[in-house]
Amino acid sequence: METVYDGYISKHINRKISEPMARLLAKTKVTPNQMTWAAFGIALLSFVSFVLGNNIIAGLLVQLSSIVDGIDGGLARRKGMTSEFGGFLDSVLDRYADILIVLGLTLWSLSHEAYSGIWLAGMLAITGIICISYTRARVNPNHRHQFDT
């Protein structure tokens, strides 16, 4: 299911993979929260790959994590397992995954580039990631419908 938060890649690539996967997994015992944790685990592997300098593998893992992350919501709807906790877990682990990916890129860059502003750029990006969640949480309930599909 497309959301207002879907970017170009998510809309035209990821959803074309994650939606059929959600349909397939709806027939199994796999839970939406397991898929949320799987997406986070893949992001963690991406972080490790960046730190070890395996950037192509890390980039592929970032994309795979994004695809797998799109499965949990569709799976929850198909199985009738939507819950506030599931939405909360997904949101929190998504931010941690984003932070790990940016931190991995930052640490790799620090070890391979001479530019002194890399650490600052990485921390600003991580601050932006955190602010996204804070801003969404602080949206006035009367206007929340403008941010959801």
TrEMBL record:
Entry's Gene Ontology BP terms: phospholipid biosynthetic process
Any GO CC annotation of this UniProt entry: membrane
This protein's record includes keyword Cell membrane: no
Signal peptide range in chain numbering: none
Transmembrane regions listed in the UniProt entry: 37-64, 114-135
GO molecular function: phosphotransferase activity, for other substituted phosphate groups
One Pfam family from the record: CDP-OH_P_transf
Keywords: Membrane, Transferase, Transmembrane, Transmembrane helix
UniProt keyword Flavoprotein, yes or no: no
Record protein name field: CDP-alcohol phosphatidyltransferase family protein
Originating species: marine sediment metagenome
